[in-house]
Amino acid sequence: MSIEAKAEQEVIITKTSNQLKLSKLKNFFSILRMNKAAMVGAIIVAIYIFIALFAPLLAPYDPFEIKLENKLMPPSTDHWMGTDDKGRDILSRILYGSRLSMGVGFAAVLFGAFFGIILGLVAGYYGKWVDTVIMRIMDVMLAFPGILLALAIISALGPSLINVTIAVGAFSIPLFARIVRGSTLEVKQLEYIDAIRSLGASDAIIIFKHIFPNILSPIIVQGTLRLATAILSAAGLSFLGLGAQPPSPEWGTMLSNGRDFLFSAPYIALFPGLAISILVLGFNIFGDGLRDAFDPRMKQ
Fold first, then answer.
1. Does the predicted TM-score (pTM) go above 0.70?
2. Which residues lie closer than 8 Å to 130 by C-beta, 6 or more apart?
3. Which fold has domain 25-60+70-299?
4. Surface-to-core class of residue 259, CB atoms within 10 Å of its CB (0-12 exposed, 13-18 middle, 19+ buried)
């Protein structure tokens, strides 16, 4: 086959692939718009992202300013969510804390997704002993409960937000790797992949240009659902004193501080707990909506 014929055939294959992606995208958005629960979840997530981006403009007080004369004030018109044991405005701290909690969640999921996607693509595409070695390592990681693996990593590295991000991201790696491997095994059997390979395309081009874009659906769904788990896990580790350290306004740290005042000033723990719960709920129902929109059976 001449070079011109090969180039023309590759253009036809690329156009066909792009048309298929566009059709899938249109179907996806039409189904997602019809899912009211997913839209509610998307609105919740969008509001939290807006708060995190503009926290300095929205916060009425300095979240780190200590005013002992105002300590343990109940919710009022001056302090909508009250003040903590050091007189700091709880609303301001929650607004600023959204940056930390969501930042750790997004960073942890990106960390886990990056390594999980690479390992899953390599295992699924090459198969044989490469697949066996990679997946047995993933099985060993999955044998440990996620929170225990995170505790072990933090115990070795020391308590900090960065180490919490690494720890939470680490137990996301095998989940992404398994999903990507399964999708890669399915896509690499398609005829257009064989056609591209016959034209002399390298493994890297086949994997990252033709296979990876076609397996994004399950990755996006898994990433959205893992965000809720990552934020909850990071807050739990901070609650135990292994994540953000005082006076950081991270939600888990605020919960830990509020447990000493559950009977005298329950609002100190109530409002950070509500902030975590609503955000996790938003990510979960939005992720469920994405899963339904990407499910081929929902399109029929």
1. yes
2. 122, 123
3. MetI-like fold (1.10.3720)
4. exposed
